């Protein structure tokens, strides 16, 4: 009887076994990566600090490793992309140019932001003020991001050459003591690497320099000049038939550098300050870009550093900085700490003009476009959720912006990379996989 | 929070509705029923009728004891929206069991019995660092129900019955990661459910040797954890002051189920059953927790579920090949109670299709063995970030889930 039983159960048991092995579901066939009509085998990235991986007001190894071009290259490997070389600081120079970090908390619980010293600095340049950085000695650089560069600078001879008139130390470290322009450097890289794909995110500094100085330095780049030079850059990049993506300029007035210190809150704190005589009649007064003194309004944007200036320096005969009762009885906040309403309008209008140039240049050449302006405007209003984690444009706590209030954190850069991938996939019918942005950090705490 | 129960068993956190269709649950009461697509409301197969339709118990000829055990193998694949990295569970196995004992006079009109079953034991452990880690990393739900049952034959054609359903033991362990600015912390919620009472009742009507019909109802039970333990880990001292809770409470509805079944016996050897279950899943609106101290600023949390009432359709049959040997086959279709954009990792649910097989072999007059296997295929289901945003359910993750479950079972019967 036992053998009969055994024989009867054998097929059943066999079926069971089959059931187990077939059990693990597999979705991978439904989500196969593909390059579509693009070719990602050789990729170069052109841009400024954002492209270099600048973060926390510095360029350092962790930021370089989390630069969006490096993240993109990692994803491109899934669809035929090759290795991607960056001008990395070495392990002993990991702090790079130095950067900002939270060093502790004050007694109200607010973070104290301090400096991490540079360890890639190698003395001063011929201008006796620009710190030189350890040279990149490789020959295969594919991340051509140079912090601080504007489109206006790309044809400037000696822009990266150590000379008494001043220079860009981030470009200087990429060149071997050459007065070459940035455009020439890019041309040389294109000739050597023969890229099949590129990204170009230049243009931000053509408005940011003006905005971050409260309208006191670095003029807004004229539209005609921008149009010419932007076109020159794209012509160099596309000459060999490479496909690519360009990104627009986010309106810098949406970033924490300009949004963390609201005028209304400052006015309220002045009016509530018992140290100020007749505080209820006092308010915040500013010096505008046209050298007039007036009460601040909600249309003026105070820069982040204004926090540590407003309310200081008062004495028996002097009002504290920023405090005033009228245009004539005031110690106005200096112009470099405020982007006044007129300046905000200038920045916004020029950003829109330059973005129109970028869109048109991309359209003429059939390139993908990441509209960073539209994206970050939306983020500033609603935040962005990455796999269940909420991120906002808030300073320190929002996860997206680093301690300089302008440059993204690794989380922010990962989100940028994903948005670029979406634009690339849409334009080139590709299926480049996105990365898990939530796996990248926001602001680092002690 | 116990929701975990689900995958296997279904899903409600603490949920325990044993008989429920769809959603959270794979019915795992009698091993014979398991082989027949889970039908049983319109049949009087054996002591497991206490679970399916207590009204049918009085019509079960034999008195006896039945011990059943199942082994559930759940395998899941997940790919986040936009990605291509497949995440698979850290696999685990759970072993729900059941015991049914029926007593009564050999020729009398009544039967009494006691049933013990674990309809919701289940467990899911997601891959380390998976995209949905802030929703869930691990869930483990255990429940034991005890059900004293009485059934009475009003005539030789109609019988009625009822059981007192006691949620005798329930335990839930739910874990997830907490997103901090520069790292992930971890929270573990661990608690025991309060003992709760519900009931089931049924009517069984057998107008002829060839036809029987049944209807049964199982009441809702609110599984409730009070005073569960909260444990945090991997939270740096900088953030520790925001995560000081030590106790939590939560409630999970185990919804009411109404079932209707038909049995057809064309001859002595063949029995065919058809069941329909209707589960009031709409009772499950939100999963709420309260904490003794604020967690990141709030002492409560609420997550939308918004389940919909759902049907399950079952069909199954058995054929008596010889006096000793019986073969079974069946299938079921569960309509998911989870709407698009509301899928959560505790219950990565979708419509599910099951196929079942079973056999029994009798060793003499009193002893028999049942074997069954259920193959459950939970359909591939994608929810997009846009859906999450529109539903304000962004506390979970967008992507595609697919799950298969295989559940072999073994039953031992002794009749007297």
From TrEMBL, chain A:
One of its GO terms (molecular function) is hydrolase activity, acting on ester bonds. PROSITE patterns: PROKAR_LIPOPROTEIN. It comes from the Bacteria. SUPFAM superfamilies: SGNH hydrolase. Pfam families: Lipase_GDSL (PF00657). InterPro entries: GDSL, SGNH_hydro_sf. This is G-D-S-L family lipolytic protein. It comes from Hymenobacter metallicola. The lineage of its organism: Bacteria, Pseudomonadati, Bacteroidota, Cytophagia, Cytophagales.
TrEMBL record, chain B:
GO terms for cellular component: cell outer membrane. It is a multi-pass membrane protein. It is found in: Cell outer membrane. Pfam families: Toluene_X. Residues 1-21 form the signal peptide. GO terms for molecular function: long-chain fatty acid transporting porin activity. Belongs to the OmpP1/FadL family. This is Long-chain fatty acid transporter permease.
């Amino acid at each position: 009887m036992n053998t009969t039983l055994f024989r009867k159960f054998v097929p059943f048991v066999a079926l069971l076994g089959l059931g187990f092995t077939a059990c693990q579901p597999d979705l991978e066939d439904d989500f196969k990566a593909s390059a579509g009509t693009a070719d990602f085998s050789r990729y170069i990235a052109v841009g400024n600090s954002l492209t270099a991986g600048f973060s926390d007001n510095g360029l350092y190894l962790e930021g370089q490793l989390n630069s969006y071009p490096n993240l993109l290259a990692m994803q491109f490997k899934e669809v035929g992309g090759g290795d991607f070389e960056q001008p990395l600081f070495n392990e002993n120079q990991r702090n790079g140019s130095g950067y900002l970090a939270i060093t502790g908390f004050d007694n109200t619980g607010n973070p104290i932001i301090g400096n991490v010293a540079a360890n890639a600095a190698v003395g001063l340049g011929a201008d006796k003020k620009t710190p030189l950085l350890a040279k990149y000695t490789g020959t295969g650089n594919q991340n051509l991001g140079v912090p601080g560069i504007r489109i206006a600078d790309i044809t400037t001879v000696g822009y990266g050459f150590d000379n008494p008139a001043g220079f860009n130390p981030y470009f200087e470290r990429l060149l071997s003591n050459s007065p070459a322009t940035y455009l020439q450097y890019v041309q040389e890289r294109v000739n050597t690497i023969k890229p099949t794909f590129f990204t170009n995110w230049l243009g931000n500094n053509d408005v940011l320099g003006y905005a971050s100085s409260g309208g006191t330095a670095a003029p807004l780049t004229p539209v005609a000049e921008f149009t010419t030079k932007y076109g020159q850059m794209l012509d160099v990049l596309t000459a060999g038939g490479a496909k690519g993506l360009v990104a627009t300029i986010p309106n810098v007035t949406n970033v924490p550098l300009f949004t963390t210190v609201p005028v209304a809150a400052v006015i309220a704190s002045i009016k509530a300050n018992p140290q100020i005589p007749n505080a209820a009649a006092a308010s915040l007064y500013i010096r505008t870009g046209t050298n007039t003194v007036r009460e601040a309004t909600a249309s003026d944007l105070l820069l982040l550093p204004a926090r540590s200036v407003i309310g200081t320096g008062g004495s028996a005969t002097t009002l504290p900085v920023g405090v005033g009762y009228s245009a004539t009885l005031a110690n106005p906040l200096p112009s470099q700490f405020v982007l006044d309403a007129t300046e905000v309008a200038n920045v916004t209008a020029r950003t829109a003009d330059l973005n129109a140039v970028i869109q048109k240049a991309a359209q003429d050449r059939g390139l993908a476009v990441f509209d960073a302006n539209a994206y970050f405007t939306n983020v500033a209003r609603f935040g962005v959720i990455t796999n269940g984690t909420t991120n906002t444009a808030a300073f320190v706590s929002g996860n997206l912006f680093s301690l300089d209030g302008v440059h993204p954190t690794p989380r922010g850069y990962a989100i940028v990379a994903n948005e670029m991938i979406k634009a690339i996939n849409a334009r080139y019918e590709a299926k480049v996989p996105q990365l898990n942005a939530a796996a990248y950090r926001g602001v680092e705490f002690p | 929070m116990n929701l975990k129960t689900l995958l296997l068993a279904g899903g409600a956190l603490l949920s325990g509705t044993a008989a429920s269709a769809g959603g959270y649950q794979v019915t795992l009461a009698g091993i014979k029923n398991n082989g027949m697509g889970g039908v049983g409301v319109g049949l009087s197969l054996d002591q497991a009728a206490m679970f399916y339709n207590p009204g049918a118990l009085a019509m079960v000829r034999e008195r006896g004891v039945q011990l059943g055990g199942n082994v559930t193998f759940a395998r899941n694949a997940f790919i986040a929206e936009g990605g291509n990295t497949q995440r698979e569970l850290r696999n685990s196995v759970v072993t729900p069991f059941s015991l049914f004992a029926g007593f009564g006079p050999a020729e009398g009109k009544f039967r009494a019995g006691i049933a013990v079953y674990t309809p919701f034991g289940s467990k899911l452990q997601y891959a380390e660092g998976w995209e949905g880690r802030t929703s869930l990393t691990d869930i483990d739900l255990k429940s034991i129900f005890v059900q004293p049952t009485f059934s009475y034959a009003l005539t030789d054609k109609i019988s009625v019955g009822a059981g007192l359903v006691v949620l005798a033991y329930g335990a839930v362990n739910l874990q997830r990661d907490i997103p901090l600015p520069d790292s992930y912390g971890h929270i573990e919620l661990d608690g025991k459910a309060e003992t709760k009472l519900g009931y089931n009742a049924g009517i069984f009507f057998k107008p002829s040797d060839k036809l029987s019909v049944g209807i049964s109802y199982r009441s809702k039970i609110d599984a409730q954890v009070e005073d569960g333990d909260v444990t945090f880990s991997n939270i740096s001292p900088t953030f520790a002051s925001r995560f000081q809770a030590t106790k939590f409470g939560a409630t999970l509805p185990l919804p009411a189920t109404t079932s209707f079944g038909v049995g057809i016996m064309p001859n002595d050897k063949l029995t065919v059953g058809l069941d329909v279950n209707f589960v009031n899943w709409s009772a499950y609106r939100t999963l709420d927790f309260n904490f003794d101290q604020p967690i990141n600023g709030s002492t409560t949390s609420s997550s939308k579920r918004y389940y919909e009432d759902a049907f399950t359709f079952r069909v199954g049959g058995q054929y008596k090949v010889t006096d000793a040997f019986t073969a079974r086959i069946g299938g079921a279709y569960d309509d998911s109670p989870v709407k698009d954009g509301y899928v959560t990792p505790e219950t990565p649910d979708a419509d599910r299709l099951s196929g079942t097989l079973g056999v029994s072999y009798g060793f003499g007059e009193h002893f028999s063995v049942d074997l069954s296997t259920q193959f459950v295929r939970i359909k591939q289901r994608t929810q997009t970030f846009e859906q999450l945003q529109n539903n304000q359910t962004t506390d979970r993750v967008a992507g595609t889930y697919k799950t298969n479950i295989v559940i072999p079972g073994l039953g031992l019967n002794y009749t007297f």
